[in-house]
């Protein structure tokens, strides 16, 4: 039966250990300040300096007008090239887009013959290809409309589309980058800190020391879970209030307290996972390699980098078992969309269930392997 | 006692001269003002406890450590000069401290010897001859195929010696060669050295030892303390000078007055009569098996209350394992143990409160202060809260820790740290103390002070003490001792009685007698866990070239001075390959890791935006409004959800993330649209994921236009804006704009950068951590040979990975190679030469494996993902990022990979990307070779 006094004492010991480990402190400080700042500011806008080439076979006022329509920061200054250069430039990846304006284009437009422009898109550049081509189409048709309008009148479109974006009206990538980095780092640090704390004990031989004392494995494990979890939560709260809101001026829609409650459940699961990994790895380097192999899938497939719905079905099902998936749901719903408990409670339940299972598995494994650790 | 002037060298040319040598590690002084001539052609001993600078001095002599201050001359040349070191390393053999530190544990005896032999040149036949001769000589011949890690301590030392002697050195440097081996193996080791010296009288030997008993055999001694030389001279001279019966006492007499004052000779009060029935520990047929290795083999003994019971034996003979079974740390595989009459049970917390345990090596929390450690342990042992401050104060006083209670343990001297450990072990006033080698490495004065405390505990507080030790004089102080050897207890007896029974003068001789007996008995029954050291084979008649008639010094093996020897590089390569093949963890990471990560990243960084959920708030509910919604739900990008009833539910469903898009069609939509407008459809996009939102907007806009066009054609009206010009969009290379064909060719460069770099980085840093890097420092292997030899297996492994990933791409992901596969393969080859080179570069300046992992990850992941054009083309980058993107080889290989995979290109179109790639390889390798050190700094 775990005793609160032991768990408290051993947890305080963990905090002291952490306080005297400059490398870990530096890692915590960096991940919750610098790393967040960088991923917020370095997150590029989708169409940013997109390289485009134009083949102007018309050399008319209209073609010149179209060429002028592409400017920084969305597009690099268009490279004026010959038809024969298009393939080489696209092959080498110098341009993502190449727009070919055919001869007599202006004349044909004005004559109402509906001539065709050729737009070549390097579709291996997924990030620019789709949005960029849509943007180019829209821009080109607006320019042509305006040009023609000076010559004759046009009917307005009968039905307009009023597109509005909620929660991030200007679609600023930095909002997304900053908040997702917080979620990522909560997961990463809670696993790494707890795992490293156990491996450090093992490498220093102190685990052996604990085992000859009247202390149970459950107490040892719970002490690490609460102390390391507390550190991560405090750092995350600091990052959200000071770095995200204060420095980066990213608004947080929902209740910080509710988010932190969700984070408590998540951290319970991930610290247990950290303990489990530390019982599998035999040394710090092995733990490092294991962490790379486990963290990358947990993070990338959780839906915080790209939307889950575009992943294969079996992966979506598999990732239901990962705490990160539910944590990302909770984080996005509360931080971006201002959702309340009435919306996020299913994810809270899932996190609690996953945490309980992970804790039970880890404790079981910790009990079994603890003797071989000394 | 002042520093004695360098004694007149007994022979004309000293083998080494040190003048005013100083050495410091950061702020810690290791050596100070050492001026010393070491005589040649004899055995010179450096004596003193751990941490006084013996190893540092030897490392300077061997050239393994860079000279900081003063001058070091070995074999007639200045060791500060690289040229002399390169020349002289053929004549020096170095055996570093720690059992088998310079050996490769997973390699067999034969492979270890072959590696060292190849480092020094010679041909294969000569290697064979020398290996056979030395291994027969040392009795290792029958075990040539056994992995070095599975040898007993004594055999490891013999293997280390074989490795050292394989090139017929003129100077043999041995750093604590007999620490941790049993007395018999120690005697055999020195007999062997003696025989080799008769065979090669011109060979000088310099030995460091902390075991003063064995130093009596040496010809000349240097006594050291705290980085300084206390005295030099023959053992006899040192003994006579201080009129001491033993070197240990002579050593204490040499120490400065202040240190000596703390010292009191240890005397053991006679043991009080004991109740034979009051048993503290009873072990019956205790057995421990690890796999098929029997660590503890049917051990039985009984320790009475209040007794000091000693446990003697070599490292790895089973002492620690037995102690761990008694504390409940290890459940025994057979037999049983009881403490105070109750069976040992790991789950029984009550017995733990009666036992104090001090494990081998310091194992307290180095992050907590002395007082914090004591308080924490008092709490955990449930000492009543009110008693804790008084108890802790009393312990601090009793164990001589006053004034240091706020210090961190790492800042204390070793002797004081061990006193702290003992204090912690007794914080709950246990009835039994189990102490596992509490005095190893501690200087004689500190050792004696620890013994005072232990004897005090035993005799005053009636605490039973069960202690293991290497030191014979400590064994003498025990009430009874048990001698353990390869898992069995050979004898348990009162020390004096042991000597009497074997008719010998010292306890050591008594033990040697028992060990010889045991080995004789075991030799007839082989197939045991630990193999005995067989008796040395008589010296075979040596070939003339092995014992040159002239002194070896005048005719050293002088290989041609080549800058780069392919044979030595190949030797490094072979060794690395063998090690890699026998390391399951790195092997698994290397092969399965890439496959797993490729699957994860391929699917995870998916830029496809599909299955977008949307719902409609249709306030019009006409055929036209339903037609508009149908336009969306018919596409492969959108999935329709149940209709929205009102504004509130729209808000809730968008907040929960259920809907990526909500459409609102106003009342009278069909009517107004029929009249030719104006009418507006509201579309709300969830902006929480900006990239997804942008795509949704583009889709919705495109579909809206399409719908308008369709309606227009339907009504056959003309002259609309959309009819002015057509834009024909060609999505080249990936017509469906799917993420996988775009991402897979980009993931391959990323993983070919990250994983090979990580593995290569670990390979060098691992050697630094394990200590085998010393083979680079003291053998003729050059830095280029070492690095290139190590790199080759990882290049092969990385190409294997490349083949695996290409196969995975074609079969699992269905992304075919459209262009020239040979071009892609050549690009991959150059690229992995770069990435493994990057790993080597990272390993030149990191010290621990975890740091190497971190640096490599930082240096590969971020540039590969952010700057190499994986997500955003290099031509879109600005400033420093653009510069990195253009220079970084990953960008160029990405161009090649995408070009061949997606764009069906070949050599002629991609040639311009090859040159920077090809250039990067020599640049990174030269840089790593320059930065790698051939000496410890």
Description:
The complex is a heterodimer of chains A (374) and B (937). Chain A is an alpha/beta fold and 374 residues long. In chain A, 66% of the residues lie in helices and 7% in strands. Chain A contains 15 helices and 5 strands. Chain A has a 4-stranded mixed sheet, with helices on both faces. In chain A, helix 3 packs antiparallel against helix 8 (173-204), helix 8 runs antiparallel to helix 10 and helix 14 runs antiparallel to helix 15. Chain B has 937 residues and is of the alpha/beta class. Among the domains of chain B are: 567-602 and 738-931, no CATH class; 612-723, 3-Layer(aba) Sandwich (abc type-2 transporter like fold), CATH 3.40.1710.10. Helix content of chain B is 46%, strand content 17%. In chain B, the strands form 5 sheets. A 6-stranded mixed sheet of chain B has the order 6-7-8-3-9-10, sandwiched between helices. In chain B, strands 16-17-18-13-19-20 form a 6-stranded mixed sheet, sandwiched between helices. A 4-stranded antiparallel sheet of chain B has the order 2-1-4-5, with helices on one face. In chain B, helix 17 crosses helix 18 and helix 28 packs antiparallel against helix 31 (889-901). At the A-B interface, helix 1, helix 5, strand 4, helix 7 and strand 5 of A face helix 11, helix 12, helix 20, helix 22 and strand 24 of B.
